What does this fold into?
Amino acid sequence: MSDMDRYLQAATRDNTRRSYRAAIEHFEVSWGGFLPATADNVARYLVEHAGVLSINTLKLRLSALAQWHNSQGFADPTKAPVVRKVFKGIRALHPVQEKQAEPLQLRDLERVVDWLEQEAKAAKEKQDRPQLLKASRDRALILLGFWRGFRSDELCRLQIEHVQAQAGSGITLYLPRSKSDRENLGQTYQTPALLKLCPVQAYIDWLNEAALVRGPVFRGIDRWGNLCEEGLHANSVIPLLRQALERAGIAAEGYTSHSLRRGFATWAHQSGWDLKSLMSYVGWKDMKSAMRYVEASPFQGVARITDKPLSP
It folds into this structure.
């Protein structure tokens, strides 16, 4: 691979690249389309999959086709008026309410963390190292994901070298890249220590239990208690979270990795944060993105669990 190819590849996120590759394969192989495509062919492709594929899936397919044509130097057929009108008509005739992850409420966060702490205590007494490590890891991941509003891929890409944590004070985390960092300039995030449900102490406890000093923060753990060298895959966060919730007696079907992010946004909104501060803290660039995560509900007073508020 040439240096130019490496830089071009780095400009697109791995998940996006895989999704685009699958979309092009569906258009060419599964449907039998030809590339470069005409506007009429793209419009016909949309019509034949209207009501079968979701609006978001069709939108992704259009983005993939647009990217392919632009990268190969061809005119982009997805911008043609006929394609735009067909897509607008599909949205009008096949309206679908967007499914959102259930936000993890503070009471359920406290419940699952208490359960994980009990698991860790029992595992230590039984000298069950695999269970001790899993309980410690899951507690740190859930608390850090909630209070920092991180996405699953951001949690899985955290590196110990990029984290500074001080017990009783706070934690600073650096991410070289993230979905909201379009220019890949890197972003630094901070969170203070809390009196209860503290992400800082949970992180320190996890590193101490696992004896980690470098590399990925959150890793897989095998049945014998051995840690993987690689970080967790983003897709593993959903089953990890659901399993922890279910063990704590919480019905977990509606929860995904976004539940941590939505849970924090809902808590902050109900606690009186203004939207600008919330957007700055979590990293949203536009109000529309922020409002998708804030649970619409009447204001409910939520008791502060720290003697100092989280600072955006």
Remarks:
- The chain has two domains: 3-93, 106-293.
- The chain has a mean pLDDT of 87.
- The first helix runs from residue 3 to 10.
